[in-house]
Amino acid sequence: MVWQQVTRLRVLAVPVAVAALPVLVGRGQSIQSGQVPVGPPSPARDATRELALKVTAPFTLASVGDVMIRRPASMLDDPGFQSAIRILRDADIGIGNMEGNLSDIPYFEGPLRGMMGVRDVAADLKKMGFRMMNRANNHDFDSDREGMQATDKLLDEAGIVHAGTGKNLEDARAPVFLDTPKGRIGLVAMHTPNGDPQRQAASAQVGNTGGRPGINALRYTIYHVVTQEQFDAIKKIRAAAFTAPPGTTNATKLPDADPKDRVELFDTWYKVGKAAGTKSFEMNKEDLTGILRSVRDGKFFSNFMIVTIHAHQGPIEAQEWLFEDQTPDFLIDLAHQAIDNGADAFVGHGPHVLRGVEIYKGKPIFYGLGEFFREWHYDGMLSGAFWANPSAGDERSDPARVSSGYRAVNYESMIAVSRYDKGRLVEVRLYPTDGRFDGPASDLGIPRSAPPEIAQRILTRVASLSKAFGTTVAVEGNVGVIRVAGTGLESGR
């Protein structure tokens, strides 16, 4: 949190002789006091130096995607699970997206619904190796602001540094810091809301009016890409729809001059493009400016900066929700701008599946790390949905349907370990994990190091998705390896 002190000067008209007043000079000092500054002001700091990676000792960052966890798990002696979390524990920093909420459920006074885990989970995450967490995601308000605030409080008590939520927008958007033996680690977190951003978005503090608690939202406009022929047809439909019947008073008038390549019809935007059947996203300029300012300011005061986002948006109109493995244009632009403003790693999550990896200017970008923990099926237990009578035909209560609508790909994830040395990224190792989609419901969604068959399937898919970004993922055994250009090995750009 950044504290800012504002000094206000009040000028009063007082009938005194001018000669009786001391002469004031720069910084409000008096010549009579002898405290006049000597010499020119200090030069501005070198931005290139300040925005560089300042950790020179060997350093590792272990990143995962969504952590949908409802119960403690660190005590499990399952070898596959312990193998996975050992990777987190061995890293200098472990980071993920704390999706959903935590509370002391018997005493929680907010509305109890949605993705809610027990209070002991927070301390358990620390035992697993998580040091930092994103908190800006679409499930923060499942139990209204009380759920969000209860979760943040429990993470604080567990000693896990988190970003992306706060008592107002300034608080939610501000960088947070973790001091470690290797240096100070900064974190800025955000979310691109799925629907109306006002439901969850924190609002700015204006004057003496406190802002609304919520998330650091990055708003956006969706443009559906169509051909010129389709675009012309939409404009005709729009013109016909807004032709008022005779006798209509106060009829809505369309703009005299529309943009040449875009048009709005019934609150939906369209634009002409070569890739019809896709979506393009335009980030809100005010939000983007504020977020990048936090990244840049945060890097000035930290040795290593992480930027993370929870983003579900996909660019393909016909790609089914939950399986959007392609990366939208805005996310690429955002990741690049974040790194240009000081980020040393960009960690994405949200689309429920894995996406590609890019090395941009020697920094790793993970566009989607999948679902690390995925205990989504526990949500219905809060409302008793699983305890109805299955024989009565209530499919919601049938335990065999707890993963209905999902596939094995939604339970396949990876831990990305970025290794730095001498102030630069050396390599990235990708460790596949599996949430046992085909296992018993009691174990569903708990990550384990993926067995060879599943690991190979994951790495082959990620290698293909990463190729579009100029990134080569070498499959070595059951681990994906990205060696960074300039280290004497090949990969990245």
Helix/strand layout:
Elements: E1 24-25, E2 29-30, H1 47-50, E3 59-68, H2 79-90, E4 93-98, E5 101-103, E6 116-118, H3 120-128, E7 132-134, H4 144-158, E8 161-163, E9 165-166, H5 169-173, E10 176-180, E11 183-192, E12 214-215, E13 220-226, H6 228-241, E14 262-265, E15 268-272, E16 279-283, H7 285-300, E17 304-311, H8 329-340, E18 345-349, E19 357-360, E20 363-366, E21 371-374, E22 412-421, E23 424-434, E24 448-449, H9 452-467, E25 474-476, E26 479-483
Parallel strand pairs: 3-4, 3-21, 4-7, 5-6, 7-8, 11-17, 13-15, 17-18, 18-20
Antiparallel strand pairs: 1-2, 3-22, 9-12, 10-11, 13-16, 14-15, 19-20, 22-23, 23-24, 23-26, 25-26
User: Can you count the helices?
Assistant: 9
How far apart are the termini?
A: 35 Å
Task: Please tell me how large the radius of gyration is.
Answer: 26 Å
Overall body shape: globular
Number of strands: 26
Point out poorly predicted stretches.
1-29, 383-388
Task: Characterize the largest beta sheet: strand count, sense, and whether it forms a barrel.
Answer: 10 strands, mixed
What average pLDDT do the residues reach? 88
Beta content comes to: 25-35%
Helix and strand composition category: alpha/beta
- What does the oligomeric state look like here? single chain
Helicity, as a percent range: 10-25%
